Write the structure tokens for this entry.
Amino acid sequence: EGMAPAPRILFPPEKICMEWQQQQAAGAGLCNPGNMCYLNSVLQCLTYTPPLANYLLSGEHRQSCPQQGFCMMCIMEGHVIRALCSSGSDLVPLTVIRSLNRIGEHFELGMQEDAHDFLRCTVEAMQSACLSGCSDLDTSSQSTTIVHQIFGGFLRSRVTCLSCSAVSDSYETFLDVSLEIEATSSVTAALEDFVKPEQLDGENCFRCHSCDKMVAASKRLTVQCLPMVLTLCLKRFQYLTGQKISKV
Ligand SMILES: [Zn+2]
Ligand SMILES: [Zn+2]
């Protein structure tokens, strides 16, 4: 509904498997050489995401990788194979640590960084790696990489004119959803807040094309297309005080 199909499919959706394709024992634990808990926790989440791990374990990426130099998919493939084949031991994810400032140039070795920020940059770097060699692709075809099919979805923003009821829709891709949790008691309630209509008026008035003037309107975000794996980020820091919200 409302969205054109992608002209080009980069990764066949039927090849993505949500269940583990091989029986997996828990892989290696990750050592923390200093302020690396944000990085280790994100790597562990990605390592145990079956559709991503299945693909990386197959070794298929590296066989056909066109990249010279830095490639986040090659790095993740190497890490996941090593971690899942080292059951009962521990390791330092050196290849990832060495590429820290290629993953995000603002990350500094040895500094405490934000896990959500690191996840965002890592998934985006994997997405860029999947798009290497097809730079002038339309947005909708870009969302057919394996990474985007697993983690990406589409949000619809619908603005309804309160004078004439005309609707105006726009779509954007997302790789995760950030939820305000300060005033909510559960993830479900936070998701309900996320899709709650918001009134646009006063300084935030909306230009309605049917009325041809600035009008009060109602704006509502909804999830148009769900990803296979939905990533939720609970916003646990208060902007004003910088305090951590301790509810989990
Ligand atoms: Zn690669
Ligand atoms: Zn109107």
